[in-house]
Amino acid sequence: MTELRELRYEPKAIEPKWQRVWEEERTWEASNEDDGRPKHYVLEMLPYPSGEPHMGHLKNYALGDAVAHFSRRIGRRVLHPMGYDAFGLPAENNAIKTGEHPREATAKSIASFQRQFREWGISIDWSREFGTHEPRYYRWTQWLFLQLQERGLAYKREGAVNWCPNDQTVLANEQVVDGRCERCGFEVEQRQLEQWYFRITDYADRLLEDLDEIQWPEHVKTMQRNWIGRSEGAQVAFHNPDLGIDYPVFTTRPDTLFGATFFVMSPEHPDVLRLAAGTEHEQAVRDYVRHAQTESAEERGAADKAKTGVPLGRSVVNPVNGESIPMWVADYVLMEYGTGAIMAVPGHDERDHEFATVHGLPIKRVIAGPEGEDELPYSGDGTIVDSHPDFDGLPNREALSAIVAWLDREGKGHRSINYRLRDWLVSRQRYWGCPIPVVYCDACGMEPVPTDQLPVELPDVSDYKPRGRSPLAAAEEWVATTCPRCGGPARRETDTMDTFVDSSWYFLRYCDANNDAAAWDRDVLNRWMPVDQYIGGVEHAILHLLYARFFTKAFADMELLDFQEPFQALFTQGMITRDGAKMSKSKGNVISPATYVDRYGADTARCYILFIGPPDQDADWSDEGVEGVHRFLARLWRLGVEVGVGPADSPATGAALSDADGALARKAHWAIDKVTADVSGRFAFNTAISAVMELVNECYRHREQASPEVQRFAVATAASLIFPFAPHTASEVYELVTGGRVWEQPWPRADPAMLTTDTFELVAQVNGKVRDRLTAPTDATKDQLEQLARTAPNVVAHVDGKEVVKVIVVPGKLVNLVVR
RNA sequence: GCGGCGGUGGCGGAAUGGUAGACGCGGCGGCCUCAAAAGCCGCUGGGCGCAAGCCCGUGUGGGUUCGAGUCCCACCCGCCGUACCA
C-alpha cells in the first residue's frame, strides 16, 4: 500500500478527466422539451471577449455555476448557456493600430475564453453558444431593429448629440459619465447630427412601475428610478410679446408661480439669439452663448460654479398675474431637461436665489414657513402669501393642485410629467458593429431592407480609422445597392448599431439559439423565459439592464413574447481587488485567473473566490488565502483515497451508534442542513464552504474511531456538498468512495433526527454575564434548567447573598438569573 | 448636497435580540524527519492572575431590554453611485 503521506492531490490529473466526461457526454446540454421538472434559467452577463478572462469573470461564472449545479441537483431543468458580446471598439481600435481584422482578434479572444471556461469546468450548454458578431446572430438583431422601426420605436432625427472626439462617434446619454466618454474618458462634445434612436421614453412609466415586480437589489432599482427621473408638475406658458411666442416651462412647484421674478433660457435654446437680436444686449448674448459652447461639460457642470448669465433684453408675461418679468440666458439651465427654459423663483429655489443675488434681481416670498423659518430661499412647505386672493392662506401643497386646475381652466398651463430619461441613441460611426439594415433611395427615400434579404453583412474594409463617418462609407461597392421598392440605385446606411443593442436580447436567443427561421419560437421562449437568476456586475445597473428591459417590453407589445420582465432575480457581485485597489494595468496589480488555475487547479481558484467573503461585496485577493482553500480540497481528496470505495449510506434514523460514528454522522447532517440553507436561501457561499470545511475537519478528528461506513458517508457527503463549488474534486472524491457520479445524485437531505442531540451546552448567566457552561438534557423542562443553572458553582458564587428577582430560561440555550 | 453600502482580533470574515470572533490566513508550540518541505495534532482578542477566575472588548456618545455587534436616536469615518434635473 502506498504511504498516505506521499499521496498528492493533483488537480492537473483530476480536472481534465472530468472535463472530458462532461464534454463527451454533453452532460450540461438542456433540452427545450418540457419533461415535467420545473425550469430554471441561470444566466451570467454576456462576456465581452477582449484578451483573456479576468478575475471578475472567474467570480461571475463561479457564482453562476454554483447556482446552476445546485438547481440541477434539487431537480430543476436548468438552462445555463454561454456566448460572447463580440462587437465593439477594443477590437476595432486594435485593428487601427495593427491592421489585424477585428474578426481575427475577436476569434482569438473567444478561443481563449472558451478554453478557459472549459478549464474552469463551468457547466455550460455549449450547443447554444454564439457570438453577437456572427451573421447568424446579427441577422436577427437587424430583424428586430426593423420590427422596432415598423412600429415607430426606431426612428431617425436631427438633434444635439454627444460626440466623442477620440472614438469619433456619437454616444448615448447613458454612455456619457461626468461629461466624458464612458469608454475612453475623452471629453464629450455636443454636435447637431441626424441619428437613429430607440423610443425608450415611451416605456418610461412601465420601466419604472415594473421595478416593483422583480427581485433585484434595491440599490439597482434606485439607480434605474433615478435615471428615469420621473417628476410630476405642470407645464406653464410664458408669453413673449416681441416675437409673439409662448415659451413653456416645466415646474414641479406651480405653487410658487406667483414668486417668479425672472425667466431663464439655456444657452442652447434655439430662440436665444433671435430674442436678443436688435437689443442692446445682442453682442453680450452672442458672446455668452459662444463661451458656453466652448466650455466643457465638466467645467460647466461643476456644482460650485458661480451662476453666470446675461440679460436678453426681452421679457415674458407671467400668466398667473400678468406681470412682465425679464428674460435671461444662463448656463445653469440645461437644454436637455424640461423645455430648456425655466421660470425663476428666487424666494423658494436655491439656484434661482443664488442667481438673483449675483445679478441683483428681485426676490419675493410667496410661501410662509413655520415661525422662525424666515430665511430665503425657503424650499419647505408652508402657507401661500402675497399670491392671489383665491390661494393666499392655503397650505402650499393644496394650493399646488388648485393652481394647476386653475391654469388648466384658464388655458394657461396643465399638469405635466417630466422625465430625465432620453431616447436611446443607437447609431455609431464605427466599423465593428451590426449594420443598420436600411437603404436610401433618391426616389423613394429611406427604405428598410426586406427581411428576406437579411442579414446585411458587414463588409471587409481596408481602413478602420474613423473620420467622423463610419469606415463603412468607404466600402463603395457595399454601399451602392438597389432600392428594394423601385429597383433604382440606392445607398446603404453606413452607421452601425451601438453594441448594447446586441446584448439587449441575447438572453432570448439562447432559448432557441439554432433557429434559422426566426429569432426565436415564441413557445420555446416561453418554456425558458424569464431568466430566473441573472448574475453580473453593478456597472450595468443602468445601461444594459435598462435597455434589456425596454426591448422585452417592446417585444411583448409586438406579441413576440409573453412576459414583461427579462430578469426575475438579479444578483450583483462585488469586485475583486488586489491590495485594496481595483486591478488595472496602470497600477500594475493585475493578476489573472489562469495563473492560479495553473498553479492550484480550477477548483481551488473557484472555491477561493467564493470563500473570500459575501459575493455581493468587494473582496481583496490574497495568495495566502488561496493556499488555505487548496489545503482544504487536498484534505478532502486524501480522505477519499484513505477511506476507499464501499457502502456510504447514512446511518439509519435511530440506529445505535458509537460516539465517533454518532458525532461524525450528525456533523454530516448538520453540514447538509447548513449548506442547503446557505445556498438556497441566500448566496452565502462563503459560509457554505466553511461548513464543508468543518465537516472535513470532523472526518479527520474521527479517523481512528469511526466505522468505515460512517466515514465514507461523511466523505461522500462532503464531496456532494462541495460539488457546486469544486465540481472536479467533488466528482473524483465521490467516485473514490462510492464508485458513482455525484452530479447524477439528488441533493442530499438532512435527517431531522440527526440534527438534534441528547444534550446541549447550557449557558448560565447572572445579570446577563456568562458565569458557567453546563451540559443539560435537550428534553429538560424550564424548571429543571433553572435548577441546573442555580446549582452551578460559579453561578452560586455570583448569586450568593443576593436576591434573585427574575429568571429567564431560553430552552436549548441559556438561563439568565437577574439578582439584586 | 442627496441616495446606497459598510466600520467586529494581526488579516479575510462568522454570528433568527441569547455563549462575540465559526471557517480560513498569519503566528506560536508539538509529532513525523538525519534535516527540511509536505502532512498530522494543539494553542492563538486584550489586560490582571500560580490557578480558579475577574475585568475590558464589535467606529463614538446616548437609549430600549433580564440580555444589544444585532433594535432606536444623535454623531464620526470609509467606499460606491449621483449631482445646477427646475
Brief summary:
The protein has 820 residues and is α+β, with helices and mostly antiparallel strands. Helix content is 37%, strand content 19%. The protein folds into 5 domains: 31-132 and 503-573, 3-Layer(aba) Sandwich (Rossmann fold); 142-199 and 423-500, no CATH class; 231-418, Valyl/Leucyl/Isoleucyl-tRNA synthetase, editing domain (Isoleucyl-tRNA Synthetase, domain 2); 622-755, Isoleucyl-tRNA Synthetase, Domain 1 (Orthogonal Bundle), CATH 1.10.730; 759-819, Ubiquitin-like (UB roll) (Roll).
Main sheet attributes: strand count, strand direction, barrel closure:
4 strands, parallel
Instruction: Assign the CATH class of the largest domain.
Output: Alpha Beta
- How many domains is the backbone divided into? 5
Q: What integer value in Å does the Rg equal? A: 34 Å
Q: CATH fold name of the largest domain, please?
A: Isoleucyl-tRNA Synthetase, domain 2
Domain Leucyl-tRNA synthetase editing: 225-407
Family: Belongs to the class-I aminoacyl-tRNA synthetase family.
Binding site for ATP: 585
EC number: 6.1.1.4
